What we know:
By secondary structure, chain A is α+β, with helices and mostly antiparallel strands. Chain A contains two helices and four strands. Chain B has a seven-stranded mixed beta sheet with strand order 2-3-1-4-5-6-7, with helices on both faces.
Amino acid sequence: xxxxxxxxxxxxxxxxxxxxxxxxxxxxxxxxxxxxxxxxxxxxxxxxxxxxxxxxxxxxxxxxxxxxxxxxxxxxxxxxxxxxxxxxxxxxxxxxx
Amino acid sequence: xxxxxxxxxxxxxxxxxxxxxxxxxxxxxxxxxxxxxxxxxxxxxxxxxxxxxxxxxxxxxxxxxxxxxxxxxxxxxxxxxxxxxxxxxxxxxxxxxxxxxxxxxxxxxxxxxxxxxxxxxxxxxxxxxxxxxxxxxxxxxxxxxxxxxxxxxxxxxxxxxxxxxxxxxxxxxxxxxxxxxx
Amino acid sequence: xxxxxxxxxxxxxxxxxxxxxxxxxxxxxxxxxxxxxxxxxxxxxxxxxxxxxxxxxxxxxxxxxxxxxxxxxxxxxxxxxxxxxxxxxxxxxxxxxxxxxxxxxxxxxxxxxxxxxxxxxxxxxxxxxxxxxxxxxxxxxxxxxxxxxxxxxxxxxxxxxxxxxxxxxxxxxxxxxxxxxxxxxxxxxxxxxxxxxxxxxxxxxxxxxxxxxxxxxxxxxxxxxxxxxxxxxxxxxxxxxxxxxxxxxxxxxxxxxxxxxxxxxxxxxxxxxxxxxxxxxxxxxxxxxxxxxxxxxxxxxxxxxxxxxxxxxxxxxxxxxxxxxxxxxxxxxxxxxxxxxxxxxxxxxxxxxxxxxxxxxxxxxxxxxxxxxxxxxxxxxxxxxxxxxxxx
Lengths: 97, 182, 392
């Protein structure tokens, strides 16, 4: 199988105006590798208010089947904004590794 | 090619005069240019506007410095501006004034054809306002024969709508009342 | 059927644009182009044109609004002059990069300072390398024709680039003269409805104006350059179509009395008409003089230039802008660079004239040509001369 190109090889392969026709193509960009610390969720303190979901600059937080909010670690950059904003104190940032 | 310079004051409608005359000539199938003295509009300031009329395509796009005809919409300008400047010695000077052409000849020292008409009086009587830009077109046509007076009516109707007829009446009176001294 | 009309050229330009049925017109007034968007707003208000006229708060917004509209699949038009074009400048190169076929009229005017509202070409020259197709109209008729051609060229699938049509401020914008105005039916026949290559829409997702990393930027610039260079072929095709339908010929470099010419002047824009009269006068004196009227400025018509100057002893390039601190005027710079590799090339002299509305009469063109002929014998002391400067 041909290895998928990271970017077009030649100028002729560029789309006109460098337009991007594939929706959600930024999903290919796994920003989770930028993370130096990760959010840990304490479901016992979580009140499911969703403030973390609103503030997450990466848009990587979603609700699970039980209604708790979780970050997708493929994309979470570990910025800690969710932990800062979580007023019940349900999110803690811990160092990776 | 005939080149014409109109003298007026900002707001007196010299641009409308050159536009109307150009449109009349173009309507007859002639070629014409009409343009203002390029620049900002300044109400009351002495301004000039220009026409070129020819039976073939006009290519010159520079200013006009040696006109064949000069038309003065406002006689009060004659003490401020040398209206005969650069005027072809065999050309025509047409002035809105109650004075006779001979008097204007003496005052200006211009030796070519001079024509006068009291366009302010005509405009006041026919339109109720002393705005002479359309009235003086009648004088210009009489003195130069550049276009037929009929040809001006259509552009005037288009431009002035309901009040066009008053303008046409004033223009026709100026055409009849113009006094010419060769 | 086309109709012979008398009209101020700026208004005629607006009428021509209206015949092209733009969906969006966004513009901010600045002398001397103002009458174009002003008249378009009248046409929209009168119900003769079903377009959104956006009264923006600046030229930057005008072109940005056109960008958004064009990206959403609308046919968009704007117009400006001088500092207005500079205020747009941030957006100007983005439009061709995004391949948006916006049409813009530029009522050419000097750049400040000192502040000056009159005509020269310093405004467009400042945006010369932005990637737009750039044309110069010499008279009212060319203004009308180029406005209509511009939409067809811009929207062609092999082009998809913005086009600016340059008309000299005042010298063209404010002059009433006779022109042939095409009918709606004729324009509809010439210009098909706009079918965008791509348009931003929730049902058909596309991202425009994305980031390009250094790994792709060279390629993106190459693509931008190539599409502009290659657009000449389409421009020539569309001009041919225009000639077939309307009988008026358009070429990248128009020629006037070039048969057997030894000396030629090269002009852009409305100077060409006045220069024609000077050429007649020179020919009458027995001078083998001709005139080259450049209509296509970008893409620069190299092949046409080489063909046009072959056999000439002397070429006088007339500029209407200064490249401050540069080797010569911007047009001359490009002409010289195009001719550098040629074994046989004419002696080139460069006159910069008509800055900020300084009038240039027929006698000036005659004088310039005669000086250039003198220079054939003696190499000119200076690479260029700003003509008619007192004290020099």
